[in-house]
Structure formats: C-alpha cells, structure tokens
Design brief:
Blueprint lengths: L1 H26 L2 H9 L3 H15 L2 H13 L5 H14 L2 H10 L5 H17 L3 H29 L15 H18 L2 H13 L5 H14 L2 H7 L4 H23 L1 H13 L5 H21 L3 H11 L19 H29 L3 H7 L1 H18 L5 H24 L6 H4 L2 H22 L7 H27 L5 H28 L12
Length: 532
C-alpha cells in the first residue's frame, strides 16, 4: 500500500514536471511577452496569472517567472501582486482536470500509447514537436500515476478512519491538524497539484471524508508559497515583497476558508447527496477555486493599501543601479537579458543626469568624476553579470537580444570613459562655437528622458542618429575652418586645440548615446546600419 501510494505520487510528479516543461517550451517566449507587455495593472495581472498558470499547469512556474520579472524591473511590485493573485486561481485547474478525467474515465488504455508517442516525438525531433512530446508523455504519466495512487488509497481506507482524529475528524483540532498535514504534503512534494491530486484520490477511495479533504486542500494552498519563499532568498527587495505578498494572500484565503468551512461543508454535502459519488471530487475542486476567488474578490479592491502594507514590512533600500541584476534571474536567460538592458538604460540616465548640467554650466572634472563613481562600479557589476549570462546556453532569439545588449554595454562603457576624460577648460567649453554644439545636444535630451521613464517604449535612436551625424559633419567642417584661422594668426594654437577637444567630446557623447539607445531600444538595430 505504501509503495503504491509513493509510486503513484512519484509518477504523478514526473508527469507534472514533463507536462509543465513541455508546455513552457511550446510557449517559447510567450510567458515573457505576456507578463511584460500585457500586464498593465493588477486586474490584467490577475487574468494573465490565472491564464498562464492554467496553461503551463504550474503556479510555481508563473510565480517564479513573476519574481524574476520584478527582480529584472520588467514588472512593478503592484503588477506582480495581481499576477500572484491570478496564479492562485489558475493552479486550481489541476483539481478540475483530475476530478473530471482522473477517476471518471478509464483513461489507462490510452495513457500508455500517449506516453509512447510522446517519447518517440522527443527522441526523433529537436524542435516544437519534441516539446509537444514531453507534454504528451507527461499528460499520460499523470493518469498512470493517478491509477496507481487510487489503488494505494483503496488499501489506506482499510487502515485509516478519519474519526480517529482529534474531535472525531470534524473538530477544530483535527481540522487544524489536517491543514498542517496539507502544508507538509506540498512542501515535501514541491507541487500543490500533486498534493491536491493525492487528496482527491484519498477522497475517491473513501479513505477520508469531504471535510477532511477540504482541510487538506486549505493547507496545500498555503504550502505552495514555499517555492516563492525559496526563490526570493537573497533576491531584490521587490522580489522579496512579491514572495511576501504571495504568503500573506494564501494565509488570508486560508483563514477565510476556515471561517466559512462549516457553510461550505453544508453546501457541499447538499450538492453531493443530490448527485453521484464522484460529485464529492467536483465539490472539493470547486471549493478550492471558490475560496481563492473569494480571496481575490476581497483583496483586489484594496490592492493599493495591501501593497503599501507589504512595502512597510519590507522597506526599499537606497536605490542602486544594479538592483535588477539579481543572480536568481540568470536561470531564465530572456529575463536576465532584460534585467541587464534595464540596468544599462538606468546607467545612461545617471550619466546624462550628471553630464547635462556640467556641460550647460561648466564642466568640473573632479565633481563629475565623483558623481560617476557609482556608474563605473555598476558597469563592472553589469559586465560580470553579462559574462555569467553569455556562458549559459542561448536560443537563437535570445542570442540576438543578448548580442544587442552587449553592443549597448560597449557603448555605455565608452560613454562613461568619455565623461571621465580631462575635458578642456570651462572657458573653452563655454565658447560660442562649443556652446552651439552643446545646445544642439541638450535640445534632444527630452526624448531620452521620456525613454528613461518608459524603457519598454521605442528608444529615440533615429532622432539621436540624425543629431550625431549632424554634429559629426559640423565638427569636420569646423575643424578645417578653425585650422585655417589659426594658421592666419586669428586664433592661438592653444585655444583652437582646446575648442576642438571640447567639440570632439560632445561629438563622442552624442555618438555613444545614439548607438547605445539603438541597441538597448525595444526594436533591434536595423539591417542597414552598422552593428558597432
């Protein structure tokens, strides 16, 4: 009996892992695109979280991706809370699948061929068909595991009587004990879906009653937060806030479910008595969905105060340029690439913030260098992060995006080096000719500031390209005229060289702003332009 139960759980877990991995591979970058582009607020986050979790059959996958996206700066904390709420609804879909198909249909006859076809597809192909084979084999294994689990639970019903629990199985003591058992089951199995399936198998075999099953499901709903807690250890503050919001939400829904358990029990018993024996499975699946929906309905209208409460519990540290470079996101290369991209955009913003008043009011080299020290440190950290990321296996699409970010990193580093150079004297920089070049650059900086505020919008690369080419052309023309004036004795050689140096530095700043914004923008560099 014990071997059958453990074997059934193992087969179910293996099936869930294969199904989830296959579906995630089939989805490709859809998870990243949906979370980063579709989620615009808590409400859209709830729908996306529920849909994605139902699609990949893993709330842990959605939650971990969400934590990674928050760490990378692709989602705000408030948006992530909506996704977490939705993931808790989406994960209840497994209970419906098991209750509707797992014990009602004799699917064992087709489960084995499904596994065989899935394995063949995985062995013969290396594209999306291979991912489909993974998912198909996993789906078949789920039902083989349920068959084995059901057989083991039938033996358990002969050795275990729920009335042996404190309070006869229905008292507050037994309910709390079963909630704790449900938490432990999910922690041990690392899958709330497997824990719920085990509970449904025990209920179907009459090893436990509906009240006991409901208490176990409440505990299993709490236990699913452990994965998020583990993922948030050592992560950024927004990521830890997301994990805490997940925990508080699940504990809140558990308390609500426990308070309403007598009412739910009465309704469920009336529903089951009026239908066949399998109605108890549907009742528990419905109960699982109902109390999660109720939790969302109660907390979603108050999501802003809820988020503020979490923020007070975990206050934000002083802003750091490298806060998005969370080592945990390296496990998800597309997210890690976006984390590096957002970090480089913030570094550009810092450089522009320091450089603009320096050019406008006089360039004090020692002052600028001191303010750019965090930029230099952040660039070193970003370089190390990209080095670890580039060592990981990349798909073709990911490699292209990483290549663009590497080009952006190169130009941002050069931009910082230009800013740290020994600039000419303030008099040279303030000369009318140099002032003309500086003013042209400053007129275009508002476009950059808009991009800094919305880094997922299109970068002003075309505007900066035209500006850079204009300044480069004027610099060449100005250089010739200045040399001629110096040769005619109208200017001193020192003043000319100082002025040319000032214009060169403005030219290089503009050029690297253009190239970095082009590579780090949403759109990839065009085929017609250079890639350096």
């Amino acid at each position: 009996m014990v071997v059958q139960i453990l074997g059934g759980i193992g087969l179910f877990l293996l099936g869930m892992m294969l199904l989830t991995d296959g579906l995630k591979s089939l989805a490709g970058n859809a998870l990243r695109r949906v979370l980063s582009q579709v989620v615009r607020g808590p409400v859209s986050g709830v729908f996306c979280g529920a849909g994605l979790t139902a699609l990949v059959q893993s709330s842990s996958a959605t939650t971990l991706a969400t934590i990674g996206f928050v760490s990378a700066g692709l989602l705000t904390f408030t948006q992530s809370v909506g996704v977490v709420f939705g993931a808790n609804i989406g994960t209840t879909s497994t209970g419906w699948i098991v209750s509707q198909l797992g014990f009602k249909m004799s699917i064992g006859a087709v489960a084995m061929p499904m596994i065989l076809v899935g394995v063949v597809l995985r062995l013969l192909f290396r594209n999306r068909l291979a991912s489909f084979g993974f998912a198909l084999a996993g789906f078949g294994l789920i039902f083989v595991g349920l068959d084995v689990l059901q057989a083991g639970m039938s033996g358990l019903s002969e050795h275990f009587d729920p009335t042996d629990l404190p309070g006869g199985g229905d008292g507050i003591g037994s309910v709390l004990l079963l909630v704790g058992v449900g938490v432990v089951m999910t922690v041990v199995m690392q899958s709330s879906s497997a824990a719920v399936a085990t509970t449904l198998a025990a209920l179907h075999s009459e090893a436990i009653g509906m009240n006991q099953a409901a208490a176990l499901v409440i505990g299993q709903n709490i236990g699913t937060t452990v994965t998020a807690v583990i993922a948030s250890i050592g992560a950024s503050v927004p990521a830890r806030r997301t994990a805490l919001a997940h925990i508080l939400f699940n504990v809140f829904t558990a308390v609500v479910a426990l308070l309403l358990l007598p009412v739910f029990g009465t309704v469920m018993r009336g529903y089951v008595e009026a239908r066949d024996s399998d109605a108890a499975l549907i009742a528990i699946a419905g109960f699982h969905t109902a109390f999660n929906l109720l939790g969302v309905a109660l907390l979603l209208p108050a999501i802003k105060p809820y988020c503020r409460m979490v923020e007070r519990i975990l206050p934000q540290d002083s802003p750091q340029l490298t806060r998005f470079l969370d080592p945990s996101v390296l496990n998800v290369p597309p997210v890690a690439v976006e984390a590096a991209r957002h970090t480089l955009i913030e570094i550009i913003e810092k450089i522009v913030t320091v450089l603009e008043p320096a050019i406008r009011y006089g360039h004090k080299v020692h002052h600028v260098r001191s303010r750019l020290e965090p930029v230099t440190e952040a660039l070193v950290h970003t370089r190390q992060f990209l080095n670890r990321l580039s060592a990981a296996a990349q798909t073709a699409g990911q490699s292209d995006r990483l290549l663009a970010v590497l080009h952006g990193m190169d130009h941002v580093s050069r931009l910082n080096e230009v800013c740290l150079e020994d600039w000419p004297s303030d008099e040279s920089l303030g000369a009318p000719l140099a002032r003309e070049f500086a003013d042209v650059l400053q007129q275009r900086l508002p476009e950059l500031r808009l991009w800094f505020a919305q880094p997922d919008d299109a970068a002003p690369a075309e505007v900066l390209r035209v500006l850079s080419q204009q300044i480069a052309r004027q610099r060449r023309e100005t250089r010739e005229s200045l040399m001629e004036e110096t040769a005619d004795g109208k200017r001193t050689a020192h003043d000319t060289l100082e002025l040319l140096e000032a214009i060169r530095l403005i030219d290089e700043v503009t050029y690297h702003l253009w190239r970095s914004s082009m590579h780090l923008g949403v759109e990839r560099p065009g085929e017609g332009g250079a890639t350096v």
